[in-house]
Amino acid sequence: MTRFKKAILFIHRWLGFISGLVVFIVSVTGCLFVFQDDIQDALLSYRRVEVQHKPYLLPSRLKTIAFKRYAKAEAAVTGYYGPDRPAVVILNVPKLGTHYIYMNPYTGQFLHDENIDRNFFIVVEYIHLYLLLPPEIGGLVVGTSVVIFVILLISGMVLWWPKRKADRKRSFTIKWKGRWRRVNYDLHNVLGFYACSIALILGITGLAIAFEWMQKGIYNATNLGKTYAIEKSEIKSDPGQKSLNVKQPYDKAFIYAQTHSPAAQMFFVVEGDQKTNTPTTVTAYAKSLHYYHGDDYCFDLYSGKLLKALPHRSKSAGMKMNDANYDIHVGQLLGFPGKVIAFLTSLICASLPVTGFIVWLGKRKKKKRNPKIRRHQLTV
């Protein structure tokens, strides 16, 4: 082995020790989370409703129904998840946490009250993102470990790449009939090779979730350094509009978004904040439970007047790439086959720290059994 590869092996080994446990946990939880929508749809009846050929109830009406359960709560978001799915009002309830109130979007019929912090897949997601640590700490630990994992993937490819053409065929296959240590060695190298490209994509999209600098990097790289003022502009509501006393500007915003994005299946309506004059926002998504193709609207909190519209077709390539980040990360951009690929890749990623540790342990034991004979030991 050349000095260069010895140096790469040293870096690869110790970075693996540093990040291995976190990478294992993040990868396993990623496997569990990939099919969370499919599993919950199969088990929970309230996640589906019968399609009715009439308009949705307005957000103000849904909020009124939700507040009957928790009068002192604060409504964060009203979501319409699709024609055959419930509407959800997300409430921040003092001392009780975040509750999702599921309702029939056509009739307002109450369907379910869920403390989201007790949802199994949300707990899995929190482990995946933060290791159940405070977000500021956990996000940094996970993000740093993912950075290291990306380096490990690249260094692993350097170590794996066969020097001679004759060795390349053997490097692509697992010798299942060999001794178990040999099989483990092949599992680490061969599976690592096959999963490397997808694992890099999962790692980079994961970093975009953990770090704002990665989102900016993706945006700038995809746009070749060009920025677009409308995408970066911060809009504020005009407190002077409060005197107009407009009734239900929240509803007015939703109706506008429905009218101008008639093909959208899913809507999220976020009411602005009077303390900071944050505007009301509505995002209209083309497909239910998919977050890539979205039209964004901003409205004055007090009057419901449109302040900014950014349909998907007008977004820059960089913004579209960041919008697609979640769908790419969980594989659903390619539908069910994409989820299967993400699941298998995450499973392989979880195995790499384990098989790598076994490889190191085996070499360490071998050195102990076969110590090097030094020159002074040959003297009589």
Description:
This protein is α+β, with helices and mostly antiparallel strands and 380 residues long. The protein has a domain at 3-37 and 124-223 and 334-369. The protein has 13 helices and eight strands. The chain has an eight-stranded antiparallel β-sheet with strand order 4-3-2-1-5-6-7-8, covered by helices on one side. A hairpin with a 6-residue loop joins strand 7 (294-299) and strand 8 (306-310). Helix 1 (3-34) packs across helix 5 (135-160) and helix 8 crosses helix 11 (317-323). The radius of gyration is 26 Å and the shape is elongated. The two termini are 33 Å apart. Mean pLDDT is 90; it is low at 373-380.
What proportion strand? 5-15%
Number of helices: 13
Helix and strand sequence: HHHEEEEHHHHHHHEEEEHHH
Overall geometry: elongated
Distance between the termini: 33 Å
- Strand element count: 8
Q: Please tell me how large the radius of gyration is.
A: 26 Å
Low-confidence parts: 373-380
Give the neighbour order of strands across the main sheet. Answer: 4-3-2-1-5-6-7-8
Structural class: alpha+beta
Strand count, sense and barrel status of the largest sheet are:
8 strands, antiparallel
The residue fraction in helices comes out at: 40-55%
Tell me, rounded to a whole number, the average pLDDT.
Answer: 90
